[in-house]
């Protein structure tokens, strides 16, 4: 039996292990200098945008919505073609999620759909760079800003990519990242929020750490004593420990090679599959230089499930990304109905993510291509 190929996995080298071990032997396991170092290293790949490291991509979304001031009575316009966390984190702040449909070709949210979903209550527009392909971020920012709302880019798939020459992380008011092992770089669990605006940044930092205020100049009771810290707004503990930040910095030093390898593998799939009847290979729009997280094949003849099962039986760990968010019973129970976003439902019905990770070999890709060609032959 041939080796099982997951759809994604981490790439760990001895330098990563050494970086973690060094922190483990030091004084600071958490809240130490490796955190700021990782945040600075991340800023170096996002056009200098300051970053706040947190414990997951989901935490990053929860922090970003908190920084934006999202609460009960507010609306968040969100893509349905994403992992549930993009919408759930807004709902947990008490906001109403309004879904705007996506392109059935790219899986990215469409600008006219976002414009139509905006109301005076809209606080945030949340887009996802599906598979790593940047959304139409400049148009989306314009639409959001015209409505007095902020643009949040869930860049869980796209760290290392660029859109119209500008790096992901420098394009939206708030950008969130995930460093889960299948993503473009990993800290095991981890994430970050990037933002330029100093007020948003301060609120993000505050929410990450219980809202604690240590700066005496900002305290209401500064004469309480040297130990004193006080809370002005509720927060949580979403601090990413030094141990994991060290892994993140070590991984970031290889981000360019990860991105290059992902692009090469993506191109190899394209070359091997573009002439297969019944499938469509992923679209790249002018202006996009994606850092591909997923290879999102579309299976056009209604045989996606059969192909999924065929490949799984042959040890190829394909995945489907994603069930439209509002199909989850938690949203269905709130009254969201199937049929709400036909583009997303079409995309979901066709999508199949093929194995894609930096240490995947060309021969592995050829094996996947051969199995797909065999299925359609
Ligand atoms: C992975 C992912 C998340 C959640 O990140 P975690 O680190 O797993 O919490 C959020 N949004 C998208 C689009 C993702 O792919």
From TrEMBL:
GO MF annotations, alphabetized: pyridoxal phosphate binding; transaminase activity
Keywords per UniProt: Pyridoxal phosphate
SUPFAM superfamilies found in the cross-reference section: PLP-dependent transferases
Keyword Lipoprotein belongs to the record: no
Cofactor(s) it depends on: pyridoxal 5'-phosphate
N6-(pyridoxal phosphate)lysine PTM positions: 183
One Gene Ontology biological process: polysaccharide biosynthetic process
Keyword Ribonucleoprotein set for record: no
Similarity-based family: Belongs to the DegT/DnrJ/EryC1 family.
Name used for this protein in its record: UDP-4-amino-4, 6-dideoxy-N-acetyl-beta-L-altrosamine transaminase
Organism of this sequence: Actinophytocola xinjiangensis
